[in-house]
Structures are given as structure tokens and as C-alpha cells.
Amino acid sequence: MLRPEEELSKLIFEKRSANTASWLPSPGKEAEEVLKKIPKDLLREKEPEIPSLSELDVVRHFTNLSRKNFCVDTHFYPLGSCTMKYNPKSLDAFASFPGFADVHPYADEEDVQGALQLLHEMEIFLSEITGMDAFTLQPAAGAHGEFCGLLMAAAYHHSKGEKRTKVLIPDSAHGTNPASAALCGYEVVQIKTNPRGHVDPADLKSKTDASVACFMMTNPNTLGLFEEDILEISRLVHEKGGLLYYDGANMNALLGVCRPGDMGFDIVHLNLHKTFAVPHGSGGPGSGPVGVKKRLAPFLPVPRIRKEGDRYRWEHSAPSSIGKLRSFYGNFGAVVRSYAYIRALGKEGLRAVSENAILNANYLKKRLEDIFDEPFDGFCMHEFVLSAARYKKQGVKALDIAKRLLDFGVYAPTIYFPLIVEEALMVEPTETESKETLDRFVEILRAISREIQENPEKVQGAPYTTPVGRIDEVRAARQPNLRYHSK
Amino acid sequence: MDTSKLRYTETHEWVSLNGNLARVGITDHAQREISDVVFVELPKPGALLKQKQSAMIVESVKAAFDIYAPVSGKIVKINEELGKRPELVNQSPCEEGWLFEMECSDLKEANGLLTEEQYQKFKTQPTH
Amino acid sequence: MDTVPHTSKDKEKILEAIGVSSFEELLTSIPKRLRDFRWDLPCGVSELELAAELRGTAVRNTDFTSAVCYLGAGNYDHFIPAVVERLAHRSEFMTSYTPYQGEASQGTLQSMYEYQTLICELTGMDASNASMYDGASGLAEAVLLALRSDGRKKILLPQTVHPEYRAVVRTYLSYVGAEVVEVPALDGAVDLAKLRELLDGDAAAVVIQQPNFFGILEDAPEAAEAARKAGAHLIACVNPLSLGILKPPGEYGADIAVGEGQPLGNAVSYGGPHFGFFAVKEPLLRKIPGRIAGMTVDNAGRRAFVLTLQAREQHIRREKATSNICTNQALCALKGAIYLALLGREGIRKLGLLNVKNARETYERLLRIRGVSEFSRKPFFNEFVLYVDRPEEKLKESFRRNGILGPLPLARFDARMRSAYLFAVTEKRTPADLDRLVKAIEETKEGDYLASTGRGIKQTHF
Fold it and tell me: Could you say which of A455, A457, C259, C287 is the most buried, measured as most Cβ atoms within 10 Å of its Cβ?
């Protein structure tokens, strides 16, 4: 007899009950006849090893799997740079209205005026929120938005007859930034972070010349600090004919506080799944709208929504457009949720989001300053980075602390990012967490800190209470087992 | 293994020269820094490389490292065993865990490589 | 609506602990002139009011509950059993992040591993990633992979591939320095003779869409053989729902199989979000873009799952990564896995048969209408093209009057395809639906412009 946890870790392929897919009608005998119209060598011979399970067994399988996850709805999830806030359930309900969920992308424009109006208004909302002139909702995620934005930067420079070859990126940047730049054929040049945690202006100045297409940055940066020299940076980059790109991963800090467009950014991407309440869905779907200043608008991907009188239509041709980034118009279901979020909160509510995200982060930062090193002084924005380097002498790493947190019922902060901070723990509490939750988090970290002094092995061996213990990642990568083979 | 005959680079490769044939691997110091090697992407035999050009990649779980050609020349042999057992790079970096062999096109380049003594001194400097 | 949980007392205590007397003090690093702007946005509303407002917006769209859908071309009106959303929308799947901390994410990781296995089984491939954005961007990534894995620079992209997919491939290749050669069509399928002619030592990959944009079944094994002889990769872009009855790409020699996952349990949702799947044969395993889950053990030797082969990815390899993809479409892929589990091995075949049968019956019935004629005699799965000799505006009107969405006028993509329509017929279509479709076409008067353009158009393009 299997132990309970063994039973629970059975793969769906290791279970068996009867399934005749009775939720479908019978195709009847004549269907087999129709199949004869298809040449034999185009037909499947061996049936796929798809499990056969009753509806109950499917339900039980996935329900039990779900119970092995931490999530925002069950646990505090202070994962830095990911904005794991609570997403109001009403948004999911709205996106499931048949008039949104069961609408075809090739339906005649007359049949989708509601959808087009929503998309059009969303473009205007996002423009206003960020201080930009025009938006596309097509990119499916942040990295897709970066790709879109950099393609537009390239097209812009080409249109002026300029060949620029470099993209500047801070050394604290997220990995998608250089990866997206490489996809557009750019050479990536790193800009140093100075001892205060900001873009080093001297380094930026020395590397900014007529070969620079674009400087990609986040603000607040990945250390959670506002780049206070942003206006000077903007002047410097523009003076040499370069563009300024805003990675909106950290936009949760800025709603109603200030706007990338006013700082001088030419291109902005947003992550609707971070700031604008699209649930993260275990890794997606997201949505990565991109906004631009007027002079870059001709390069936006097609199609574009146009409003004529009170009618909306798609415009498919635009001579300077970078083209299409994916099929259809974007992750519409995600956009509906964010649209509803913006409408529900309104301008006061949105400003309150950032105010409280900043308050919560500073509160935690202050209360943790005696048990961790804080590599940079001053107030943070919506998140902050701690260093656990002081615990190295007990042999405890950031990774160990992250794992131990799981035993206390808290998901781990982002660790080892940004790369420039040793033993980094990046904490983003978000605006939706109460003071009580934050206080408990502080108490837990204090308890772990004491534990490191008294019993470091305990921390090194964590977690103990999760469905599995510390996972052998070396084995996973050395002998990749990426799919199940039936015996 | 007697490592005193080996030559070294500042990017932590070792070279064992036999005529114009150079066998290349990474140093014990380097394998420690990389930690558990999970995969090596070996160069293609026949590939022509310039000195200091990236020849191949060694991967750990959370990082990937370029391995550079210590001299210019042609790849003539690769250590196929590493495909199945990448851990040899950790267990025996200077013997069973060798990476590839090259035919040097310019033996003079080898004169510029570090000696054992120079490398030992170099790797303990805090700045590299 | 308000999402902030602090009482005013909490807020005071927080400010006091931080050591400031007002929130504004925390913003001193932001230049003053940036903080001063007019924000032209509406005020917030309650859930109650917003629900009513959005219902009003939604009903201005014609959806599948109010009309019969014959539109396809990448997104299809399939039946989704209630279980799919009930399970996938559980908080533990919906509100968790990419499973970085494996010990607290075994549910996601195991379901990813099961998804990967299901995709491999369906496609006959060796390894799958955990999802791409959609079919089109998945195809573009497949092309990039093929270009990366050898020095070749040419991609053969047939004109029978979905025009939007072709456009996306071109966008992705904007700065890659590769050449895209479009292979012409013959009778609605890839012109194989032309394909062989174009296949030379510089071809990195041949793309085949199966069924193709016109719903037609390509002679994929022949195309694969031609690619193999020339040493080019075969990229098969397939409809996953067809693979219960159609030969899986792995069996006819595809090196990479990609496609749009929407038909597997995902609502159409005006074109997204859905997922793209991406699977390869063993030699390309370490070049896959995106997340991959692997099976391993924990420190007590128990079975465990974890994100693996991460050194390929952007967060480690940065500008040298196999792709820039980070966020993917995990929840949509999960819906795909649940849907396949509900189908089971019998169901996937049954579903394929229902689609083929419904489509064939519709095809034959429509051909009996005066002025409706064949586009191609080649076999198809659940989608086909017919010429309907009626003025497009009149047809459109009649379809609307009769509560029918579609079919898709191909003139939308190419003006020369006037009067050609793409019909998608899924398991949801009933005999009553078909009657309604026939009635709608019959109610319009036959036009005369096919006569003026000639029937030979199918030979001259696509």
C-alpha cells in the first residue's frame, strides 16, 4: 500500500479508471467512413499515451496538485520585482462574461464594438497613467513588450538614416533586457551602478555616443531606488540622439506619483500582470502593452484601433509599422481585467496603490535593518534589497533563508537578484498586505536570524514542512527527465 | 597529475602542450567557483578559433561560463565522455575532465601563457 | 473600490516607525516638477456599478452564445467542459508565480511536467517546454532555433501558412540576418516541386502548417522527406486537436513541432490569452526557449519536480539566452493539460472524428447550393475554403440576420481571394446550425463577379 504522500505524488499517467469522454456526443459509425477521405499516410496509427481517467479522478488529481502550491490567496508572497498583490476576484468574473470570453478575433468589426471600445479606452488610460502619447496592447508579456519597444527604436533610427548598434543597460537590470536587445541585433553595453545604488552618471556619460540606440532602464531601479538624476540622464541620452526606454516592471511604485513620460522616456512597457492586477497564473499569461511618444507612434505594431465618430475599427496597414508580434490583438482577457481594475480604483485608488506599496516597503525595510545589511541608504520605493552576507560566517546563505521562510508559511523573496548585491534578498510586500502580516513577517525573519546563530544546520536543511524537501537541481540538470515514459 | 608542466590563462583554463597539440581544460580553482557542472557544450571538431575567443560553454545549475581558446588553432578532438558525465570536470578537472584538444597555429602564443607559479599567484589576487 | 487594508491608525504607526511625519517625505528623491502633474482619469466605482457597466460593454459583442460560429483560422469555437475552468481557476494555480521555489510549487511543477508529457505524446516529439505566448510567436521562436543550430540562413515559408504567422516570423527575423523565401501554393497546398527546387544547402528550415491556413492537409511526410534530404530542419506547425486522428509530426520527421494551444480547453477570448506549444526532438533539447520542468528527487530521495536547464534562459544567460521569453502562458497550458486529461485517449480520437465528420457534412451540403464551388479537392480536417458567388456585403448582412458568425472572407488577407471563404466546423455545430447556414447563403442573391474574375484564381496565388 502506498503511503499518503506517495499516493499524492502519483503522476496522472500512473492512474487509471474508465473514461469514454461522455461529455462529447458519439460521432457515429459514419464518421469512420468520412475518415477514408483522408490518405492513410496522413493518419495516426498508434494512439497517444494520454491517461484515461474518470472526471472525478481528473478533478481529484489536479485539486490535490494545487494544494502543493503556495499562492497569494493562501500565503504572504513578498517576491521582489514580481508584484504579487491581491487581485480582486471581480476582475476574473468580468473577463468570463460571454461577451468577452466567447468572442472571435475575426468577427466583423460591427460585431465587436464593445471589445474595440474597451481596447481603445485602455490605450487612453495607459497613455494617461504613464504620460505617453499612444499605446499598443499587442505584446503578450513584459519581454515581448521589450522586443516590441526595441524594434520600434531600431525602426525609428533607421527612418532617420542612422545606424546605431548599441543598447545601454544598467548592471542591475533584469535578464530580459539584454536578451531582448540581442534579439534586435544590438550589442549590449553595461552601465555601472554607483555606491549609492544609482546609475553611475560618469559611466553613462562615457558610454553614450552616436552609436547608442537606446538606454533601457527601470525607475525605480531593481534596487527599489528612484533614479534621482533621471532628468539629467534623459538629457544626456537625448543629446546624443539616443532614446530612453522604460521597463515598467516597477510601475507599481509610481501610479499617481510621477510618470515615465514626464521623465523623458520615449518608450514604455507595462506588465499588466504586475501593476494592473492580472493574476500571475503560475507564470502567465501576462500582458505587456507598450507606450510611445508621438514621434515613435508610426512604428507601433499593426493593427491599430481607430475611432471614427462613435464607431471603432481596426487599421491593418501602416507603412512604417514594425509589423506583428503575435497573432490577433494581444491577451485580450488580461486587458479586460486591467481595464476593470483601473475603472474600479479610479485615480484616487491607483494613487493609493503606490502610496501604500511604498509605505509597506519602507516599513519593512526599517524594521529589518538590524538583522540584515542594507546595501544602500535612504528611503526605498515599492521594494528593497537586503543582503544576507553577514550570515555567511555561520554557513547560511540567502537560499537557506528563503527555504526556511517556507516553513513559516511565507513564500520566499526573490534571491540572488539583482546580481550586484551579494546574497541578495529582494522584498516587495505590495500595497494589499496589512500591517499585521508585515509584522508577522518581521517576527519570522527575526526568529530565523536567531536560529542561524543558535542552530544554523536547521536553516541549512530547510524546508521541512513542504510536500518535498530541498530539491536536487544538479541531478535534474545533469540527467534531464522532462517527460514521463509509460512502462 | 604533475601540473607543473601546464600553462595557464587568466580566464582559468589550463593547457598541456605536446608539440603543436594543446589539450585544454579548466583549473581546479575554476571548477570550484563554477560548482556542480551539469552540462558542457563542447566545440565542433574542425572549428577554427582565435586566441581568447569563446570556444565552448560550461554550465552549472544557475550559471553558464564561456571557456576561451588559450591559443589560436583548430579543434581536433573533444572529450566526448563529458556528454554523459559532466561531473568529471569537477571530479578530475586536469585529467579525465579535460575539454578539448587544438592544433596550435602559432606556438609563439603559448609563450605568453602563465606558468604554474604565475597562475597560483594570479588566482589569489582579489581583483580578478 | 479600495484594495488597501490599512486603518488610519495603522498608517500612522507605519509612518512613525519609518520616522517620517508624512508620506510625501518618502518621495524627496523624486524631482518636484515630476510630482506635479494633472491626471486625467475617471474616479473609481464599486464592483456593483462596474459589473453593470461591463455587462453593457460585453453585450455589444456578438458571442458564441448569441450566434453560431463558423469562424476559425487559428481560434476555434470548441466545447469546454466545466471542469477545466473550475480546476485551473483554483487560487493555487491562478495566484502563484513562476515556480522559482520548487518546494512550495510542486503543484505547478508537476502539472507542467504532465503538460510537457502530454504534448510530447500528442506530437510524437521528445521534449516540450512549458508554453509560449501563442502559436505564431512559437513558430517564430522555432525558426530562430533552426537558424541558431547551424550556420544556414534561409527559411522556406509556404504561402499556405497562416498569413499572420508569416507576418510574425518576419517581425522576429527583422534583425537576425536571415532570408525568408515564400514557397508558392498549388491547389491550396504547398507546391512540392517548387519546394524541392528551393531547398538548397543554405536552407535552415522548412515550415509546414498542418492542417494549413486553408484547412487543407498538406503532404507533410513528402515535405519532411524533401527537407531531410537537403539537411534542413522541418518545423511543423500543427493543430493539437487534430492529432487524435492525424499523424503526429514526430512520426513524419519534424525536428520541431509548434502550434496554437487554444483548441485545447481555452476560451477564444477575442484572440487571447491562449498558449503556444513548443516541442523538439532530442538533439535540440538544450536549445529550447522558455521554462522547462524536470523530474528529480529531494534530499530524502522522494520524487520531486523543479525548473531545469535554466542556464539557457535570459535570467542567467542574458544576451546569450536561447530566447528573451520570461512570463509565459502557464495557466492556459494548464487548461490544455486538464482538457486532454478529460478527453483521455479515447476522447481525443472521438473529438477528431466529430470534427472531421461535421466539417465534411457541411462541406458537401454547401456545395449543393447554387453558386457555391470548390476551392481545392484536397483532404481537410475541420476547416475548408469554398467560393461563394455572392456579394460580400449581402452575405454579411444575411449571416448577421440569421445569427451566424463567419465564415472568414479571405479577401481580408488578399484582395485577389474575393469570394473565397474559410469555414471552420467544430464538434459544437449541429444539423440545425447547418440548416441556418444554408438558409443564410440561399437568402442572398447569386452575384456575378466570379464570372468576371474567372475561377482560375486558385492557381495563380496562395
Answer: C259
Q: What is the pLDDT of residues C113-127, one digit of tens each?
A: 999 999 999 999 999
Contacts with B62 from chain A: Cβ below 8 Å: 416
- Measured distance CA(C137)–CA(C159) in Å, rounded: 17
Q: How far apart are CA C184 and CA B93, in angstroms?
A: 54
Give the phi and the psi of residue C253 in degrees, each rounded to 5.
100, 20
B17 part of contact set with chain A, CB < 8 Å: no
Q: Which residues contact C270 (CB under 8 A, 6 or more apart)?
A: A100, A103, A104, A105, A112, A115, A328, A329, A332, A333, C61
- Tell me the average pLDDT across C330-352: 97
Helix H or strand E segment including A136: strand A134-136
Taking the Cβ of residue B122 and every Cβ of chain A, the question of whether any pair is shorter than 8 Å is answered with no
Does C72 score more than 60 pLDDT? yes
Q: What is the amino acid identity at position B19?
A: G
Show residues of chain B in contact with C311, CB under 8 Å.
Answer: 38-39, 59-64
**Where would I find the beta strands (DSSP E) of A238-330?**
243-248, 267-270, 290-292, 304-308, 311-315
Domain architecture of chain A: domains with CATH: 4-66 (no CATH), 90-345 (3.40.640.10), 354-474 (3.90.1150.10)
Answer whether A82's CB lies under 8 Å from A280's CB. yes
> Is residue C193 predicted with pLDDT exceeding 60?
yes
Written as nine digits, the cell of C305 is: 519536480
Q: What is the pTM of this model?
A: 0.96
Residue count (chain A): 487
- Assess contact for A107 and A313: CB atoms under 8 A: no
For B48-74, what is the mean pLDDT?
94
On whether the CB atoms of residues C59 and C66 are closer than 8 A, the answer is no
Task: Select from C328, C343, C353 the Cβ nearest to the Cβ of A50.
Answer: C343
Q: What share of chain B is helix, strand, coil (3-state, %, to 5)?
A: 25, 35, 45
Does A474 sit within 8 Å of B36, measured CB to CB?
yes
Q: CA-based angle C44:C50:C53, to the nearest 5? A: 125
**Max alpha carbon distance in chain C (Å)?**
83
Handedness of CA B9, B13, B19, B20 (dihedral sign): negative
Looking at the structure, give the CATH architecture of the domain made up of residues B3-124: Beta Barrel (2.40)
State the Rg of chain B over Cα: 13
Report how many Cβ contacts below 8 Å link chain A to chain C: 699
Q: What is the pLDDT of residues A87-146, one digit of tens each?
A: 999 999 999 999 999 999 999 999 999 999 999 999 999 999 999 999 999 999 999 999
Q: Quickly list DSSP for C405-419.
A: E--EEGGGT-GGGTT
Work out the pLDDT band at C447, boundaries 50, 70, 90: low
Q: Are strands C233-238 and C256-260 parallel, antiparallel or unpaired?
A: parallel
Query: For residues C30 and A257, is the Cβ–Cβ distance under 8 A?
Result: yes
What is the pLDDT at residue C455?
Answer: 45
- Which of C221, C213, C271 has the alpha carbon at shortest distance from C247? C221
CB contact under 8 A, A51 and C344: yes
Using CA coordinates, name the residue in chain C closest to A23. C81
Q: What average pLDDT does chain A have?
A: 96
Q: Which DSSP symbol is given to B74? A: E
* Nearest by Cα to C104 from A174, A161, A144, A405: A405
pLDDT (tens digit per residue) in C372-402: 999 999 999 999 999 999 999 999 999 999 9
- Subunits with 3+ Cβ pairs within 8 Å of C are A, B
| Domain annotation for chain C: domains and CATH numbers | 82-340 (3.40.640.10), 345-460 (3.90.1150.10)
Of C102, C110, C171, C96, the residue nearest C136 (C-alpha): C171
- Predicted ipTM of the assembly: 0.98
